[in-house]
């Protein structure tokens, strides 16, 4: 996975109050039965335009969440056999405490309309976000927004062979599709849908015309 991530973490329990700063560290100093809360933030690349976001994404779809689960994953792409062996050894220890940077919320998204990538309407794909609770370890990522099954989303994604897809970043790559407000002018032609950013800090604006252009460019030989 070609992303540079910076984790800012606040680990709190009955006996621990400290700041840690990389994915190899886990809050193992507290008793195994003590509840642990980790507050995490991720540093992703920022994109200057919808075009830049589109170029970086290998998959762009409109879809709706049909299932949610929380799971411990290793979020690093498996690039060679040595790395795979190391991961297998680490994950095979039954008594190993779950590391905070492996706890993900995984959304199963049913594709309603594809704009870029290999998916077609009706396909399902999984999208992961850092955060969730497994056992006594709870990870809160304030940068992430919960995806709701009652909403239609447009997602700009990076996909991988061995792990669920990821949003390009938490702020700029998630949009909500909403019904357009009724026009006050009966004769005026208006869109039936509008697209708004899911994150209030997003400085990019995505339109239906943008999505149609993306789709047209993908279909052009």
Structure description:
The protein has a single domain (47-129, 144-219), classed as OB fold (Dihydrolipoamide Acetyltransferase, E2P), CATH 2.40.50. The protein has a 5-stranded mixed β-sheet with strand order 2-1-3-8-7, with no helix packed on it. It has helices at residues 50-56, 81-92, 208-219, and strands at residues 9-12, 17-20, 36-40, 59-72, 103-116, 124-130, 132-134, 137-141, 152-158, 165-167, 174-179, 193-197. The model is unreliable at 1-30, 77-84 and 89-96 (pLDDT under 50). It has 3 helices and 12 strands, in the order βββαβαββββββββα. It is an alpha+beta fold and 221 residues long.
Mean pLDDT: 78
Could you say which overall geometry the principal axes of the C-alpha atoms support? globular
Tell me the total number of β-strands: 12
CATH class term: Mainly Beta
Report how far apart the termini are.
29 Å
Helix content: 10-25%
Protein name: Flp pilus assembly protein RcpC/CpaB domain-containing protein
Signal peptide: 1-28
Organism: Paenibacillus sp. AN1007
Keywords: Signal
């Amino acid at each position: 996975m070609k992303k540079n991530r910076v984790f800012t973490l606040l680990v709190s329990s009955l006996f621990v109050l400290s700041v840690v700063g990389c994915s190899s560290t886990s809050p193992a100093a507290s008793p195994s039965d003590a509840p642990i809360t980790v507050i995490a933030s991720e540093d992703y690349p920022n994109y200057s335009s919808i075009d830049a976001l589109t170029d970086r994404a290998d998959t762009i779809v409109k879809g709706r969440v049909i299932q949610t689960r929380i799971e411990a994953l290793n979020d690093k792409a498996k690039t060679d056999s040595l790395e795979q062996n190391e991961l297998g050894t680490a994950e095979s220890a039954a008594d190993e405490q779950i590391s905070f940077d492996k706890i993900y919320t995984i959304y199963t998204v049913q594709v309603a309309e594809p704009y870029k990538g290999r998916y077609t309407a009706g396909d399902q794909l999984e999208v992961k976000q850092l955060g969730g609770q497994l056992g006594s370890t709870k990870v809160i990522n304030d940068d992430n927004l919960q995806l709701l099954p009652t909403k239609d989303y447009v997602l700009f994604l990076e996909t991988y062979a061995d792990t669920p897809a990821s949003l390009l970043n938490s702020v700029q790559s998630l949009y909500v599709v909403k019904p357009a407000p009724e026009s006050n002018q009966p004769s005026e032609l208006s869109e039936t849908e509008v697209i708004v950013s899911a994150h209030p800090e997003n400085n990019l604006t995505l339109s239906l015309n943008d999505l149609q252009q993306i789709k047209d460019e993908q279909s052009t030989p």
